[in-house]
């Protein structure tokens, strides 16, 4: 029997199986996508700085929201890139370029949002420390 015949193609049997596949996807993005690793490093540094500066719970929630948006944006951008590369068989096509650029633009917008949130949270704390 061909090993390809043993691969799952239908719905997940239960939540645990679905969660396992989702975990595999996040792990794959972390291993293979440089920008996702960078974003995760920024997330760890940001949250660490939040603990060091003793920011309020509401501020942590804003930071966490911004971080999650960036990470989800990176994952969705990766999905779009992989689909478009597959569909174009890795050949240049202006339409594919536009689609990939638009997806990347979405990630940039979430990153800008995250930076703005970080500035609103950290700048007043840093100014307070300096005074």
From TrEMBL:
Transmembrane segments: 36-55, 61-80, 101-123
InterPro entries: DAGK (IPR000829), DAGK_sf (IPR036945), UDPK (IPR033717)
Annotated residues for binding of substrate: 74
Cofactor(s) listed in the protein's UniProt record: Mg(2+)
CDD domains from the UniProt entry: UDPK_IM_like
GO cellular component: a single term: plasma membrane
Keyword Iron part of the UniProt annotation: no
Membrane topology category: Multi-pass membrane protein
Sequence positions that bind a divalent metal cation: 33, 81
Entry annotation: catalytic residues: 74 (proton acceptor)
Cofactor note: Mn(2+), Zn(2+), Cd(2+) and Co(2+) support activity to lesser extents.
Residues annotated for ATP binding in this entry: 33, 81, 100-101
Pfam families for the chain: DAGK_prokar
Source species, domain of life: Bacteria
Major subcellular site: membrane
GO biological process terms on file: phospholipid biosynthetic process
PANTHER family xref list: DIACYLGLYCEROL KINASE
Family according to the record: Belongs to the bacterial diacylglycerol kinase family.
Record-given protein name: Diacylglycerol kinase
């Amino acid at each position: 029997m061909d090993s390809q015949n043993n691969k799952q193609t239908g719905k997940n049997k239960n939540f645990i199986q679905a969660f396992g596949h989702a975990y595999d996807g996040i792990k794959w993005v972390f291993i293979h996508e440089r920008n996702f690793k960078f974003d995760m490093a920024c997330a760890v540094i940001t949250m660490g700085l939040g603990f060091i500066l003793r920011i309020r719970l509401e501020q942590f929630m804003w930071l966490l929201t911004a971080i999650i948006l960036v990470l989800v944006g990176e994952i969705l951008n990766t999905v779009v890139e992989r689909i478009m590369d597959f569909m174009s068989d890795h050949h240049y096509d202006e339409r594919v370029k536009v689609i990939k650029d638009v997806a990347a633009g979405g990630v940039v917008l979430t990153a800008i949002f995250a930076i703005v949130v970080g500035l609103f949270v950290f700048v007043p704390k840093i100014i307070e420390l300096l005074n």
